[in-house]
Amino acid sequence: MQHFPRALSLTCIAALLSACGGSENGADAPQAQAAAPLATASTVLQLDDGTLPAADAQQFAQPAFHMAPVLLDAPEDVAPGAAAPTTVHTETVPSAFRRLSSRQLTVDRLRQVQANRGATAVEATDNGGGSATPLATSTTVVTYTPAQIRAAYGLPALPSSYSNLTAAQAAQLGAGQTIYIVDAMHNPNVAAELAAFNSKFGLPVCATKTIATNASLPLAAASSSACELSIVYSTAAGGMTATAPAYDSGWATEIALDVQWAHATAPLARIVLIEAASASYDNLLGGVRLANNLGPGIVSMSFGGSETSGTSAADSVFSGAKMTYLAATGDSGAAVSWPSVSPKVLAVGGTTLSYSGAGARSEVVWSSTGGGVSQYVATPAYQSTAVPGMGTASRRTVADVAFNADPNSGQYVAVIAGGGSTVKWTSVGGTSLSTPQWAGLIAVANALRAQNGKAALAQPHSALYTNIATVAGTYASVFADITKGSHGSCGGCSGEVGYDQATGLGTPNGAALLSTLSGLTVQTAPVVSGATINGKAGTALSFTVAVTASNAVTYALSGAPSGMSISGAGVVSWAKPVAGSYNVSVTAKDSVNGLSGQGVYSVVVAAAGGTTTTTTKASSTPPVITASALSGVVGKALSGSIAVKVSNSGAVSLSISGAPLGMSFSASGMNVVVAWPSPVAGSYTLKVTATDGAGVSATASIPVTIAKR
Question: How confident is the model at residue 127 (pLDDT cuts 50, 70, 90)?
Fold first, then answer.
């Protein structure tokens, strides 16, 4: 099997293809054609390698953390399983620090101000290149321990010992799951910081495990009983390198808080820290590609930058099998950031938490949380009018969910400053704190689902929006609806009943959320994968719509030319096509849950006698198509694969013609999987043309032979 040099995924699949041409090889061809008529259509599969436009690839993201301008005293030691302290730590901000911005503040900066005895304390820092976010009017910082956060949000209490746990107990702590932390730059002290954090708060030790740059991927399954920490350095192509990125105090702080609080939420999950060489979109996407290659898990991205009309080109990177992707909505108030705006990413916003150490928590919108309406991304199906408070969304709206994020209601983070060895204790917030905690929640939910014999959630949007938010009683038990506070002056900037852009569906009631997700059979809308269909005027055309659905569906067409129809089996027919180009929308409606999905088929009909030519640019390397001849017997399911290796960047289209009726094509990692459930005797030839983003093409013929029994 030949693999692509970079992550390559299918974003537009036309399955159950009916394609053009008769059989070309063998005496049995006429018989096969009579038994399984071939339609005069070909389907173009769009392969998308997730490559961003050049201008977007070189944009830089920022870490989304805030640090309260105070160095805390070391917290008291907590024994494993000890009850959460009933007294919450509060500390007054020193006068020398009160004019400092909390946005991307670091211990290095605080030490500098201390050394200068306040000489520079009147300067508000802004390491992120955006507007500074001062500490506001508060001079008191509240800081929560892991046990207090678990108690406030209703997560299972930690055991007194992490040895000899039952499988069910270990699952409540995320055992067997992997959380990928994707960040930029290098933190040389992350393992020591995590060890100090674990020792102080009674959390399980994480053994450091090396992953070799030439390790066989995907990784073996995570431990079912212990935490492991691995650190790898990614390339933009999604590979591993032995060269560590440069140190940066801001990103080092981000890394520390991400690792520590993902672990605090899912203490037995495996943590794989992926450090990218820089904060460019291209390099950070390389970290996500590497996570996809390493194997199933949850990807936490506590960073963000500007969305553009081109950033959706990377959506296929967020489509890994059995993968969940989460990203911070940002920390500069009402605004939309990438990658949280991707419809395939769970966007995590922030709140200000009030909790006394006992009883119920209360929350309001954190004034600096990100969130808003995308300028470019279409409204995803899960953000429907059935979701309370959602209304009719004009485009993708973020956030999806929220968690505590205010540095003034911060959470302890252990930090070792650059060049030092002494642990400093800080109070950190930001939506970058919310994000790894939601990643931990998904890890625990997946561990519990595995115990219940259910598949991992993968993209959890349908579960959260459709299965939970649209069911009144379930919504009320699973989420705390944040209805107070705001993060700007816009019309949608305030907390509202039901969904709002600042906090999404709300913050989790841990026990109810995990219980619901662990047993949930997720209701999903059908997915209709559009494609380009080619035909000739006057020659009958038919193709079968590619639909992924949990139940039987009904079909409807819109925008179809006169004479085109669709059958109950999803076969689109047009007896006498007329030359031209048509965009035909196909809607598939689930007959059980009533959810609908839609895809667009671009039907291109050439004039009678027209021909299509393919031009290969001699100065560029053409794609390489690799596939073996297929052979089988009548009635026995046949399968195979087609791999494409490309040298040039951009989307790759794969045109396949000559397929017999009933043969289908679908995505599996970086290959196109060929399947024919009930082969008919005969000889056939698949003609495959691959065209890369530079317009360079290559063609291959794949013989298919089906013998009689």
Answer: very low
Strand order in the sheet with 671-676: 624-626, 638-645, 671-676, 664-668
Write down the pLDDT at residue 696: 75
CA distances from 23 to 20, 538, 682, 690 (A): 10, 21, 8, 22
E strand or H helix at 47: strand 42-48
Looking at 505, 522, 550, the residue that finishes a domain is 505
- In order of 6, 239, 301, 307, 326, the CA distances from 284 in angstroms are 14, 12, 9, 15, 14
User: Which is higher by pLDDT, 638 or 17?
Assistant: 638
pLDDT tier for residue 124 given thresholds of 50, 70 and 90: very low
Residue type, 541: L
Q: Which of 470, 505, 540 is the last residue of a domain?
A: 505
Q: Has residue 514 been placed in a domain? A: no
Letter string b/e over residues 1-20, b meaning 16 or more CB atoms within 10 A of that residue's CB: eeebebbbbbbbbbbbbbbb
Q: In Å, how far from its chain's centre is CA 442? A: 12
Asked whether residue 499 falls in the same domain as residue 633, the answer is no
- Are residues 234 and 343 located together in one domain of the fold? yes
- Look up the domain containing 551 and give its range: 9-49+532-707
Alpha-carbon distance of 17 to 666, in angstroms, equals: 10
3-state secondary structure at position 404 = strand
Q: Please write the tens of the pLDDT for every residue from 500-531.
A: 999 999 999 999 999 999 998 776 677 787 77
In this structure, are 27 and 84 located in the same domain? no
Same domain, 553 and 671: yes
Strand-pair category, 638-645 with 671-676: antiparallel
Buried b (16+ CB within 10 A) or exposed e, 576-609: ebeeeebebebbbbbeebebbbbbbbebbbbeee
- Where residue 210 sits, what CATH number does that domain have? 3.40.50.200
Domains held by the chain: number: 2
Please say whether the beta carbons of 633 and 678 come within 8 A.
Answer: no
Whether 654 and 681 share a structural domain: yes
Q: Is 498 left (phi over 0), alpha (psi -120 to 50) or beta?
A: left
Instruction: Indicate if 260 and 390 belong to the same structural domain.
Output: yes
678 and 580: one domain? yes
- Report the percent of the chain where pLDDT is more than 90: 62
> Does any domain span residue 17?
yes
For residues 662 and 586, membership in a common domain is answered with: yes
Per-residue pLDDT of 593-613, as tens digits, reads: 777 777 788 888 888 764 444
pLDDT over 60 (residue 123): no
Residue 2 is assigned to a structural domain of this protein: no
Q: What is the DSSP string of 231-272?
A: EEEE-TTS-EESPPPPB-HHHHHHHHHHHHHHHHHSTTSEEE
